[in-house]
Amino acid sequence: LDRREFLQLAGGVLGAAMWPASALADGEPAGGGALVEYVGRPQNLGTPVQYFDRLITPTDVFFVRSHFGPPALKRERRVRVHGLVERPFELGVADLKDFEPASFTGVLQCAGNGRSLHSPRVPGVQWEHGAMGQGTWTGVRLADLLKKAGVKAGATHVILRGADRPPQPTVPAFVRSLPLEKALDPHTVVASQLNGAPLRLVHGAPMRVIVPGWAGDHWMKWLVELRVADREAEGFYMQTAYKFPRHPVAPGTAVKPSDMVSVTLMPVKSLIGRPLQGARTPAGMQEVVGVAFSGGSTIARVEVSTDGGQSWTAAMLEGEAGPGRWQVFRHRFESRGGACRAMARATDAGGAMQPRTPAWNPSGYFWNAWHEVHWTVSA
Amino acid sequence: VIRASAAALLAAGMLFLSGCPSRGPAAAADAGSAAADGASKPAAATPAAPSAAVTKAARAVITDSCVACHDHQMLEQQRMTVAQWTAELDKMQKWGAPMEPAQKAALLAFASAHFSPSAGLHRAPALSAAEVEAQLAPTDDGPLAGGDAAAGATFFAQACAGCHGHDATGSALGVNLVDRPGLYRAAEFAAVVRDGRGRMPALPATDAQIAGLLAHLRRLPVEPAENPSPGPAPATPPAPR
Lengths: 379, 241
Hints:
The complex is a heterodimer of chains A (379) and B (241).
Chain A: H1 3-10, E1 34-39, E2 44-46, E3 79-83, E4 89-91, E5 101-109, E6 132-141, H2 142-149, E7 157-162, E8 175-179, H3 180-183, E9 189-194, E10 197-198, E11 208-210, E12 223-229, H4 236-239, E13 243-245, E14 260-262, E15 269-274, E16 280-282, E17 284-293, E18 299-305, E19 313-314, E20 316-318, E21 327-335, E22 338-348, E23 371-378
Parallel strand pairs in A: 3-12, 16-23
Antiparallel strand pairs in A: 1-2, 3-4, 5-6, 6-9, 7-8, 7-12, 9-10, 9-11, 13-14, 15-17, 17-21, 18-19, 18-22, 20-21, 22-23
Chain B: H1 2-19, H2 24-40, H3 52-69, H4 73-76, H5 82-94, H6 101-114, E1 126-128, H7 129-136, H8 149-159, H9 161-164, H10 186-195, H11 207-218
Helix pairs in contact in B: 1-2, 3-6, 5-6, 8-11, 10-11
């Protein structure tokens, strides 16, 4: 136990610090550069909602999802490319210069983002809105690494393995795979940088996989192995976890494993970053700002309602459009004072619109209901 | 049923208060809102607050087993039914968390009473970006630099391998030590060895012994874990402490 944990355990039910004085609810104003600590060990840290008013999420407050916690920081850690290939090889960060640079600006979102907002509740890290962020990820194309290795006939998947180890051998290792088609997508990247700086340990240093438009469970951190194979990865984290019902189910339904498929593309979503829930703003022009994205498409429009959904107005969109990439939306209106509310819903270029009620599923993935905030305008 | 569950929740609130005076009004408010939630959902009956003996046993399991791998916030933020808690504890046991039947029953009673669907809002604390970095960043070895790895291997085999495994990849009694950031935070590592942690007993080791341990653990092979599936649960749950 570290000192803080000891103090917490020494306190009440589990801790005196269950609701500490510095408590930060998702959506409440935070001090500069603070994350929301859902789990301290291993680190599962959310980005405060107020950062969802801009195109790039600052690295300091970029969310962190860990299954077991990171391995030691070793910039010299190498990735082994092998399996069904003609020429297996290894590479470190310094070897990335041998390949054409590639960059992707887009959304990393944990599949479980918003889990605590599903009803009935399901087990897992009880994320609110903060398990997402947009960054510029820079490295080389995964396809170029596979080209150098020479993929053999019969290959169908690339198995991804990181250096993080489970706490004991009876706990399944976090192993994932990508279908070969997605691995060869020119936008799929093995990155060593986030927002122009070397990846930090919590974000996967020295190298991680970037899988545009797909949920974060594919974005393997601390990458050490790319194994080309003729089947997808085995084990708990590929065959049991990160699965979604093939067809919509009523909330609370137990779904047979054969009716579940792996989560991949993120559904269309928007979220209001400002004003914050419960904020007070001065009378006059009110500005509703947020972000909107869709895993497989561009954003066609974001509409905002300030009357509880009776009427909707198209918001202005800013930033470059692209699949798996968020744009900022902005809507202004006048208020002379009193209670205000705003709700946002996005529609993508494929015609998919954010649902009013999210698709409940047994693991609480992909919450994307219309986001509503209430605030008070001082007269 | 509604009245009984509300009473149970209020009792839980009293328990919070008696266990933790510093929380005061916040606890009362949360117990109140939880009771209101419970009243609006009579179908989701919350188990009554467990007895002092069960609470003590549950806390011991949390300290000895759960927090070896994750901190207690992982439990506190859940809002699960008895059936969901049962499934979760079964999964954790399958993954190797040591729990005797009575311990598991105590933890189930405790968790499903306090962290039920009708419990109040969980507020996660704030953590600055600087703290996030500081938790994992390597620190200077100081007097623990330049250890004798061979001596460390002998010391490890005698004092540590019984719980952490001969290859240091962990067992039901001790976590993996291979390739961990903590191996490069020597002073913190030494404090854990000397003070103990959870069920791990304090070990009065010298600087030279700890330096040797670090030298040994740092040179262990760091091949990625090869087990994508959980193995069988230990046949006999080990006794606590």
